[in-house]
């Protein structure tokens, strides 16, 4: 291995792609951020975003653009747990010296535990549990909108909209969620159906804060939704414990909001992450290349 | 009104568009069937399907194609309860003498009760309750996939897939639905995620028969799903009763399967329909034109 070898970690997600450029000792040289990199949603856009984030990181490090061809890349990408998407990315004639691929949750776990065994639960727009035992990772949950990702922001938003529409038709209990969603969308009555029809998981995730607000104000329907979501995350934590990882890091935008709703025994096993997903992606590149 | 005036009833839905051609006395002259006519999903395709079905009905009646311009049309279309979709259809420079528009559920109710006041519940790919009191119709439920249409085929299929994935990850109780869905889709494990991702309400509705089969064989998870769907349809029937229509017709492909799961008091109020939705659409045309 050359002493001048450069390593790049890629943390790819549905909204953006982060790049972290380091030297052989793991010292940070530069960073970059580009567009979406969810291999399941768009493999082509994912490739474009990775290259763009890499170019930015090289520029940030004041390195020449043609250093791209010498990079050893470790990439954590949403969607590559699906065989078809994994194949689409590994079949890529990439412009780097090497390209090592893992799921976004794998590099998040590597980052959170500084490369050691451990577990993470991510609760953001989606939700997933991940356990790394003897270097072997196992994923629980996730699977995508609308059938997976229970307890996530998208799930909370979908359940809130369902409850609001039932209340509107007097087919379910009254809830302040109806007025909150109408205000959020700037429309009323059947207008909320039109506004949310064909909505993405992110559109639904944008409704999640309304659910926590309504639950905190004592709305019984909102409390029921948050409690069901938290119970699922409890189940996810207990599933990770059965897989051999009792302690875990709770990551994602929902973490701070949902933690007070978790069971005490589950909340007691939450640990602060040691590093970020892009640092985990760098570890993936360093480890895979030295193997 | 000319004695030779022709009236056409259009029953438009998400999978096909039926046309029924009658004379001034309501005598059947010919019928036609064309492609999808769901104004919410595709207003352009809906217009194309209506004209094609009308042409077929004229040909079936051995009438000249240029009789199209003399037709008085009554159309019941899915989606036109949404203001934007209603506007898209009423703004149509249609090729007929007159075009009267209503929702698909309104003409289904007109058909089922031969034009009299009454109520219907449709449980097919979607679900909806409708009450016609003093000629004024009110709709309950529906709203579309994935947030509405509880108790429908699409809802049953979605709930089945959610339960199967929870079972796969040992995050929920074991269920024979997992194997049944894998067989139905001709794939296994994460392959079912890939197969159903981005699926339409019809793709989910296609899973509904598996739920009834599993429930009949005693699968507790499937029974729970069917019971929750039936409880919603019970609530829909009681909502119609509060709206002033105690008896109702239960229409749609799920009707025969879900009836045994309804509460006895609700099941006792089910009446056989007197006519079909395309007959209701003809009534819409005849009544509106004579007004």
TrEMBL record, chains A, B:
CDD domains under this entry? ASKHA_NBD_GspK-like (cd24082)
According to the lineage, what is the superkingdom?
Bacteria
Indicate the segments forming the ATPase BadF/BadG/BcrA/BcrD type domain, all copies: 8-257
Q: What is this protein called?
A: ATPase
> From which organism does this entry originate?
Pseudohalioglobus sediminis
